[in-house]
Amino acid sequence: MKIERIQTGVRMEKRLVKVLKGTAEYLDMSLGDLLEGIVLHAFEGKSPVFSKETQAKIAALKKVYDLGLDASHSHKLSE
To answer: Is the pTM of the predicted complex or chain greater than 0.70?
Structure first.
């Protein structure tokens, strides 16, 4: 499907971005492609399905970057 992509200037928690970038690299895709997939799943009330290997990599990246955040922290973060 042909689409038009734009640059966006979103701000996100630093360690979360590092884990996202690491995950995208592990999956050999761009950060934008990973985020698009996650958001499209979320918009349909679905969870993106990551393989056991990818889940393990995400857990390792979270540990490396000391990311202790989870879904319960959503909408409760402040700077």
So the answer is: yes
